[in-house]
Amino acid sequence: MSNTSTELSEDIEVIGPGQMLAEARVAMGLSQQQVAEQLNFRPALVNEIEQEIFDSKLPDTFNRGYLKNYAKLVGVDEQDVLASYEMLGVAAKQRTELQSFSKITEKEAQHSRLMWISYLILAALIASTVLYYLQDASNNALTIEPQPNNGESLSAQNTNQAASLTADNQNLESTTSEPAASNKQVASNIAEPVNEELASEPSLTSSQAAAQPTVQSKPIELAQANADLAQAPIAEPVKVVFSFAGDCWVNIYDGAGERIAWGIKKAGYVMELNGLTPFKVTVGKPELVAIDFNGESIDMSKYNVGNIAKFTLPESS
């Protein structure tokens, strides 16, 4: 989908309701005082309307009523005046959003500084902990004391070794009389651990063989998941072209709920839009608009002349 923005487009000429009414009043040769007398308005109220200064404390219905009465007096289309009044609300909303964005950016900068300070404190704590354990380990190594009575332990060890050698000699003398029996006993002692090791090997092999299919199944599952993601359909934007034969107010949303066009379009203006369907379209004068939706012309003759038309594209069959 092409990049869209909720800001006012530079190729749209926005005329405020106050300017429209003031120009029509001057064209009729009326003064603000005369308009105030005919509409039973305060002269200051007429001046505020033309300066586009509206009291925020009053309900929106009152401001719309003032604009409609003024438009009837000077012969201006009420719908055009009200549409221009709505554009003032959009501009005010954009200013509020910009202020909110600047506040969010400032808070994010403060949060980033706090995060860096926290990281530095954490790194200092980790470094001090590691240094403490290293110093403790070095102190323990230095405080190891030598074992006492080394001479007595060495003499006792020599006595034990001499006794064991004497016992070994006696065993050798007693075993020389029966060499065959001794050889059989030694052979059986050697064979028993070998047989035990051979008996234990098949159980390990079978357990490894049982675990092998589960390990091999994981790459297959991952490959299947990647294939499913590759086959998932991807929505593509659709092109729609609006051609205006006269001044007309429009308001258009795409399928993602984003407002992609609005305001008064001048005669001869051609507007190309790209977005996801369905488009929700509102036009002030459908007889002045020609629409080409994805290469197909839309029949606008079914909408009443001079009335606001609301429809979706593509149209339901």
TrEMBL record:
GO terms for molecular function: DNA binding. Gene3D superfamilies: lambda repressor-like DNA-binding domains. This is DUF4115 domain-containing protein. CDD domains: HTH_XRE. InterPro entries: Bact_Cytoskel_RodZ, Cro/C1-type_HTH, Lambda_DNA-bd_dom_sf, RodZ-like_C. SMART domains: HTH_XRE. Keywords: Membrane, Transmembrane, Transmembrane helix. It comes from Thalassotalea euphylliae. Residues 21-51 form the HTH cro/C1-type domain. Pfam families: HTH_25, RodZ_C.
